[in-house]
Structure to design on (226 residues):
């Protein structure tokens, strides 16, 4: 069991709305990464947070933003939702930014109508 | 930028037969390499990882993978398939540049009884 939890498990929004997804990292992990996994595709890296600072970002527009809190939990915020944002959003934590192994949560399934 | 290619989006094997899932990476500097498994409606579970130690890496559930620098490959194998192995398998590469993972598009493994 990974120990990474995400909420909610499922979410339905309409185009143009905003959404916040949450992730609690595994105990002792200070680094959190977020991924978008479209249906039938591999996960795509959105960004990583290390000790409350953004520590790397993939090819996603600024309407995808994040936060990491002092307890190392994290949020992913998406503004102005588009239909193509429908996907499984995965959170992964690791013991440090230099640690290569990531432990994934079960994901949040976002549907944009 | 790093990229990961998984040959064969769908692979079917008979129960008890050899499993071979192919993965190639593109980089002049070998990255860290991983195989993850994803069961329906779940997050990713780490099977094994290569971090420049032994080129033959053993993982969980009887899986192993061999790193071949000359072929830039990291193929996943299991001598005898079990019904419970049916899942989606992802190969991933990690580089310190950008602190991010690059995932392949996945291979869906079907095990035929």
């Amino acid at each position: 069991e990974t120990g990474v939890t995400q909420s909610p498990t499922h979410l339905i929004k309409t185009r143009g709305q905003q959404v916040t997804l949450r992730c609690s990292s595994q105990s002792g992990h200070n680094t959190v990464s977020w991924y978008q996994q479209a249906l039938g595709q591999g996960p795509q890296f959105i960004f990583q947070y290390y000790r409350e600072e953004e520590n790397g970002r993939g090819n996603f527009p600024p309407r995808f933003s994040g936060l990491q809190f002092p307890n190392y939990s994290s949020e992913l915020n998406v503004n102005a939702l588009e239909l193509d944002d429908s996907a499984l959003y995965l959170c992964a934590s690791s013991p440090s930014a230099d640690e290569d192994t990531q432990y994934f949560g079960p994901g949040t399934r976002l549907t944009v109508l | 930028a790093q990229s990961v290619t998984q040959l064969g989006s769908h692979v079917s094997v008979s129960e008890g037969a050899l499993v071979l899932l192919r993965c190639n990476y593109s980089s002049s500097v070998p990255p860290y390499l991983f195989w993850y498994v994803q069961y329906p409606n779940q997050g990713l579970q780490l099977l094994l990882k290569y971090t420049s130690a032994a080129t033959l890496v053993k993982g969980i559930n009887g899986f192993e993978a061999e790193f071949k620098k000359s072929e830039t490959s990291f193929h996943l194998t299991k001598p005898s398939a079990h019904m419970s192995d049916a899942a989606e398998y992802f190969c991933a590469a990690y580089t310190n540049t950008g602190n991010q993972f690059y995932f392949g598009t996945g291979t869906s493994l079907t095990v035929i009884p």
